[in-house]
Amino acid sequence: MAVKKMALANRWMSVTDVIDWLRRARENREQQVKLLEGLEGRAKQRRDDVERSLADLPNNQRSQVVTRAVNGFRSELKRQSLDSRVAYLKAVGALREDANSARAHYQSPVQMLAREGLGSERRSRLLHQIEKSGQIELASLAALAASTGDKELAAALLTRNSGLPVNDRAFSSQELADALVGDEWRKVNQAIAEVDRIAVEAVHADSAFEMGKPNATRAVNIALMRRDEQAMGADLTDLEDEDTEETQED
Length: 250
What we know:
9 helices, 76% helix, disordered C terminus
């Protein structure tokens, strides 16, 4: 039987870390948008100015002159803005790499719940207290943990339950984990997905400026990424509130 390889090189990042990565990615993207909009605005202004100055020329001749003038001006804008544009792409690329590195630690609610209170004295006591508990008692305690939000008790029960034969398990570990940390799991995975999509958007926007037109295929891919994010169902509209809640829990 093949043994699944673990991503042992992935450094640990908390939910708060991932949310901070998302906040920084959003801020970086906003700044990039302002830069690119400013550059496009200058290019449009040059086109308008040249067209007005050549109003007396025939349409075909005017169009050719305007195109050459605007293309030359865009080339100069590209050169002038290159360092700034590359800096935004490098920054969001690094954030994307860090956020994606966290995926290994948030593969499922069960994985998240299993490390709750790991090594704590209370979890050790709970494990000792329930080591002889039967199915009925374990199921009752699982319901108690879910209703009271006691993650440490739930983690201890998860360990005990997973040690039983599959047919003798007292409750669904997946259901218990989803009740305790499901919302948090969806939030962190949606945050990772959004950082990923923002990075793709940033590259798409810069490429569109360089080429003078957007890439239709990449635009469709971005729309699909947005759809997948929304399907996760987490609310990440106000990151300040999310950060406050995480700080209080820690």
